[in-house]
Amino acid sequence: MLTLVTGATGQVGRRFVPRLLQGAAPGERVRVLVRDEARGERFAELGAEVVVGDLRDAEALGKATAGADAVVNVAAAFRGVPDEEARAVNRDAAIELGRAAVASGVRRFVQVSTGLVYGAGRGRPLVETDASVPGGHMWGAYPESKAAAERALSALEGLDDLRIGRLPFVYGDGDPHLSDAMRWAPQWPATQRLHMGHHADVAQGLRRLLYVPGASGVYNIADDAPVTTVDLFQLNGVEVPDALYDKVDPDPWYGVMSTARIRRELGFRPLYPSVWTALDAGAL
After folding, report:
1. What is the pTM of this model?
2. What is the tens place of the pLDDT at every residue in 183-198?
């Protein structure tokens, strides 16, 4: 089995690919698509095949998907990029990758998405059958474009084995994401929650989507214990401003996902059930 991974140099991809290679069975191969040949050297040293090209280049996509059995599309343009770039990478490039996969006869496609596509909360943990309802303090071009990619790929003729993993707030393994959250946390109410997932568990979830027979459709991937804004301040060693306690959380279930489906169907169990477990293990 040959698996193509895009977005290998991003925060998720650079931690996912080594774990995918480490857990590969005899005869399984991993190929990565990178824009910068120098940044692909690390993956080559670990045993991956490296294809140099841009995700928005149809010729490069054809070369990257040729002979592949599966694709894991980790590529994403996150916060801090222009809306046009977010849509170009998260939606347009994902659709073109899906078309290239179909043309190359790829039989399995794993699309990495985000729990933010749910938008507004439902007064309970979000489940995979919940429709996207735009809104909430974290809505914008990123979740909008990821939701559009999910819809387009699901409707793409010939992409019969599509598996979608919706990720939470990802942290761990030295990822600065946890400290980056302090750019936004001062504006949040003290009780506002953020659902988390360690890179090790994101990799575990994506590997299960990739390999488990019969997996189909959307799966939430997350840990067992969403943190509060107060937790974020404490994890970063920052004093909690008194003003946070005066703010009201307008949507207490925003972004909180149920993991019942991936647990039941794919046997997922977080290695780090909470960020506090990861902290105790020195895995932040």
Report:
1. 0.96
2. 999 999 999 999 999 9
Which residues touch 265 (CB under 8 Å, ≥6 apart)?
A: 212, 214, 215, 219
For residues 263 and 270, what is the distance between their CA atoms, to the nearest angstrom?
9
Which tens digit of pLDDT belongs to each residue from 231-277? 999 999 999 999 999 999 999 999 999 999 999 999 999 999 999 99
Report, as an integer, the average pLDDT of 125-154: 96
Q: How far apart are the first and last CA of the chain?
A: 32
Q: DSSP characters for 72-85?
A: EE-----TTS-HHH
Is there a contact between 234 and 243 (Cβ–Cβ < 8 Å)? no
Q: What are 211-216's contacts with CB under 8 Å, separation 24+? A: 212/265, 212/266, 212/267, 214/265, 215/163, 215/265, 215/266, 216/161, 216/162, 216/163
Question: 83's torsion region: left (phi>0), alpha (psi -120 to 50) or beta?
Answer: alpha
Percentage above 70 pLDDT, the chain: 100
- Each residue of 163-186: pLDDT tens digit? 999 999 999 999 999 999 999 999
DSSP letters along 189-218, please? Answer: -TT-EE-EEEHHHHHHHHHHHHHSTT--EE
Residue type, 126: L
**Helices marked H in 66-157:** 83-87, 94-103, 141-155
